[in-house]
Amino acid sequence: MSTLRNPKKYFFIQKILGLFSRAVTKTSYTVGEITYTREAFTSLPGHVLVLQLTANKPGSISFAASFSSPQPAATMATTSAEELTISGHTMDHEGVKGLVKFKGLARIKLDGGGSLSSNDTSLSVTNANSATIYISIATNFKNYADISG
After folding, report:
1. Whole-angstrom distance, CA of residue 109 vs CA of residue 129
2. Counting beta carbons within 10 angstroms of the beta carbon of residue 64, is it exposed (0 to 12), middle (13 to 18) or buried (19 or more)?
3. What is the pTM of this model?
4. CA–CA gap between residue 114 and residue 78 (Å, rounded)
5. pLDDT tens, 30-86?
6. Neighbouring residues of 110: CB distance < 8 A, sequence distance ≥ 6
């Protein structure tokens, strides 16, 4: 979902998976003098994936976020509220009509500086201190025999 701008040599990468104690995954890496950290967790009751991006130097978080899909009927767009959306349905396969519908929404909240902008199909964060990305995706799939959801 994100693209690293001006990638440089990574000096240190650390991954921590704390599923049993906090249900959070944490990855840190250093580029030059800046240490970047990404923490992620999901909430089943909230139907959301949350990613928090931070750096040890203010104004160091910059990225572009967009959705992509192998489904030809997928539509990606942004809203006037600077939200990123994806919607569509699955393609036909081996004579079976594609009937699974999907819809996704992503929001980005900046904390303490930086800017958030959008174009038709992506959101861009520039020079932020930290960014929290909220992603929610749902389908009408209940089980293999029921896609009425």
Report:
1. 11
2. middle
3. 0.83
4. 19
5. 999 999 999 999 888 889 999 999 999 999 999 999 999 999 999 999 999 999 999
6. 116, 125, 128, 129, 130, 131
